[in-house]
């Protein structure tokens, strides 16, 4: 009952409450993003959502225009503290997680949920193994179980296992726990960036 009805109601309520804060953050960050390199304010990120459907995830742009797609050895997207692709304002937004705020619009549209597995790129879903694809049985989230219990400090495949755990145990109580732990994780700045070893990062092939 919660997964089919209650979760959507919670998403709409939280999305509407968050919307004014989203608009304020966009109003403050937009000129800083634009004047740093005269590029677009938003990055419309292609992602894979529930049931394997493609959707556009909205983000404030944190990287330089036409930045290459860097990947880890396991095929996941690189996200390091020394990422040369990030702009100065982008590094701050990424660390504070405010680049993700426009995703509340995705929540109101129904593409995403407030809590759920973080969405992957299409090329990443093609690397799923075993039960990994179960994460696509629910809507992706702005925050999620794997996002607050390890975040980017965990290897990608370990995060996938946590995503599958969430899908198999989703409940109102678990969502509340993840939601409030998100503030704790952001405040402590735990696991914001991945720590790759030499040679682990390469440019994705087209």
Order of helices and strands: HEEEHHEHEHHHE
How would you classify the helix and strand content by structural class? alpha+beta
Q: What summary fits the major beta sheet?
A: 2 strands, antiparallel
Please indicate the percent range of residues in DSSP E strands (runs of 2 or more).
5-15%
Per DSSP E runs of 2 or more residues, the count of β-strands stands at 6
- Beginning-to-end CA distance, first to last residue: 42 Å
> What is the overall pLDDT average?
89
Share of helix, binned: 40-55%
* Secondary structure tally, helices: 7
Gross morphology is: globular
In angstroms, what is the radius of gyration?
16 Å
- Main sheet: which strands, in order across? 1-2
Unreliable spans: none
Number of structurally distinct domains:
1
Structural write-up:
The chain is of the alpha+beta class. The protein has one domain. Helix content is 44%, strand content 12%. The chain contains seven helices and six strands. Strands 1-2 form a two-stranded antiparallel sheet. Strand 1 and strand 2 form a beta hairpin. Helix 1 packs antiparallel against helix 3. It is globular, with a radius of gyration of 16 Å. The model has no long low-confidence stretch (mean pLDDT 89). It holds the Pfam family Bac_transf. GO terms for molecular function: phosphotransferase activity, for other substituted phosphate groups. Keywords: Membrane, Transferase, Transmembrane, Transmembrane helix. This is Sugar transferase. Belongs to the bacterial sugar transferase family.
Summarize the structure.
With 206 residues, the chain is α+β, with helices and mostly antiparallel strands. It is 44% helix and 12% strand. Residues 7-188 form the Bacterial sugar transferase domain.
């Amino acid at each position: 009952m919660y997964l089919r009805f209650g979760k959507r109601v919670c998403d709409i309520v939280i999305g509407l409450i968050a919307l004014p804060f989203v608009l304020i953050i966009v109003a403050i960050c937009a000129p800083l993003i634009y004047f740093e390199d005269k590029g677009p304010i938003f990055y419309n990120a292609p992602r894979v959502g529930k049931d394997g459907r493609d959707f556009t995830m909205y983000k404030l742009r944190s990287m330089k225009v036409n930045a290459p797609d860097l990947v880890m050895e396991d095929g996941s997207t690189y996200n390091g503290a020394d990422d040369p692709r990030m702009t100065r304002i982008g590094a701050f937004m990424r660390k504070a997680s405010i680049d993700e705020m426009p995703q509340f619009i995705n929540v109101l549209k129904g593409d995403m949920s407030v809590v759920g597995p973080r969405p992957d790129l299409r090329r990443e879903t093609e690397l799923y193994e075993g039960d990994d694809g179960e994460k696509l049985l629910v809507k992706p989230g702005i925050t999620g179980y794997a996002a607050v219990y390890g975040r980017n400090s965990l290897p990608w495949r370990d995060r996938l296992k946590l995503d599958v755990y969430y899908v198999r145990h989703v409940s109102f109580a678990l969502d509340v726990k993840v939601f409030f732990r998100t503030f704790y994780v952001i405040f402590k700045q735990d696991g914001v960036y991945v720590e790759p070893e030499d040679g682990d990062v390469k440019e994705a092939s087209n």
